[in-house]
Specification:
mainly alpha; 434 Repressor (Amino-terminal Domain); 5 helices; 0% strand
Length: 70
Amino acid sequence: MSDDSDISLLFGKRTRELRLRKKLSQGKLAKLLDVHPTYISGIERGKRNMSLKNIEKLAKALNCNIKDLL
């Protein structure tokens, strides 16, 4: 597994943990970010990468700091 995959998996796992802690479904989080729910699923599974802008939106939606996602 490459380093890129490792960080993607860790980022996705952390995103899922924070989303569940906030009691948000993938669909609700997707609406907050104005993305498709399958995009959130891909992030959480480490299959997709987010842009910096979307990471910022994600942190705001989860009411956390960007560093909390990393």
